[in-house]
């Protein structure tokens, strides 16, 4: 029996990249997965892959910047699967490689609305279902710890996700809900399209990793998420785990 047998997980941005890796890793442990993505075709693709693995999945097209759409997505999951046990706030969009003085209002809106605001919308909507053993996993970034050049909107939005994670862990511990975060590194579709036009930056990123390889979305990041969502992590909350091959160190 898988460690997540009978659990229901929402994974945002699961149409590709790290979200898809987390979704398939959790499905292989027996969880039913709500595949949330802005891209309907990508969401359907991941949901189909999960069904072929023998697990249940529902694709949900949703713009996570819209709190009403998030509420409707959570309601659809509850209608189909009865509850939500695991919430993975993975999706985020941002324009990066922009000097601080050139950041636009739209850049800030995109990063903050898809990052901490969308994560809060999902956490708020899922709260009644998560009470009594629920798990929340938020996605942060080593770039926040490094203060990566050209990433100001992204880094500040991810720092807000860190604050949200810690406060939620304090507030929701009384309800037996754990709230943790992962700082990943994997050559997702999003990362590939960024590094394709900047091969020097990829070389620099790789040479800064202790383990000198990129992570695998499912085998590395997905398995860490399975651990945080599973029975072995029931006493861990408010933590951020670096799953980035030793790119950044937290404390
Ligand atoms: N790839 C890395 O190495 C890395 C490093 C640090 C942090 N992260 C974080 O991990 C998470 C996943 O990253 P990734 O590289 O797999 O991303 P990605 O760009 O490959 O995929 C993001 C997914 O989110 C979806 N999405 C974007 N905007 C959306 C919206 N408004 N509503 C719904 N869905 C939306 C996209 O359609 C896409 O499927 C992000 O939070 C990212 O910041 C990634």
TrEMBL record:
A GO MF term: oxidoreductase activity
Regions that span the bilayer: none
Protein name per its UniProtKB record: NAD(P)-dependent dehydrogenase (Short-subunit alcohol dehydrogenase family)
Cross-referenced SUPFAM superfamilies: NAD(P)-binding Rossmann-fold domains (SSF51735)
Family classification: Belongs to the short-chain dehydrogenases/reductases (SDR) family.
Organism: Nonomuraea jabiensis
Oxidoreductase in keyword set: yes
Keyword Plastid among record annotations: no
Keywords for this protein: Oxidoreductase
InterPro entries: NAD(P)-bd_dom_sf, Sc_DH/Rdtase_CS, SDR_fam
Superkingdom of the organism of origin: Bacteria
